[in-house]
Amino acid sequence: MTKYLPLFPLSIVVFPGEKLNLHIFEPRYKQLVLDCVENEKTFGIPTYIQSGVGVYGTEVEILNIEKKYDNGEMDIRTKGLKIFKILHFDRMAPGRLYAGGEVEEVENKDDGDIITKLNITESLKELYDALGISKLFLELPENYKSFDIAHHLGLTTEQEYALLQLENETERQEAIFLHLQQILPVVQQTEQLKDRVKLNGHFKHLMPPDF
């Protein structure tokens, strides 16, 4: 099933369920927001990547306009709903200033492997401990999904965009666990290096070896 969505390309990846606050200042996007609010419609945020509008993005709903400024600018709160693929892109939607496009919803299988999730949870704890941000781990809900932690894994925009395109939770879990396995040793070695650097220049109380 396809539909036509107003589009707001941004150089970020928005995931389903994500809360995103935006400051709207360009005339075309002021028009987009007002149109969506007036008609109670959603809009799409495709990822602008590698100097172009990506094929994939996330449909979002406007929760509320938090603040309106005298010059027409706005602060809005939005929430990601579901992933779409652009079938046809218009730089300007018919009769409007903003972009639009014919999109189809990407099926998202919300399965998952409990063992892989346990491995991810343990790796996340190790990562956050090494980085000194254990508080972030404590705030993790027990029933979290891959999209809930995607922005907290140290992924590049390209890697987040690749994750967005995976159509089931099991594949996303495997990609995330592989990423954590790759970066954990690097982070831990970096922290050890920082500790060694701090020791240089200090008086050291060392126990001589017994030989």
From TrEMBL:
Coiled coil: none annotated. It comes from the Bacteria. Gene3D superfamilies: LON domain-like. Residues 4-182 form the Lon N-terminal domain. InterPro entries: Lon_prtase_N, Lon_prtase_N_sf, PUA-like_sf. PANTHER family: ATP-DEPENDENT PROTEASE LA (LON) DOMAIN PROTEIN (PTHR46732:SF8). This is Peptidase. It comes from Pontibacter diazotrophicus.
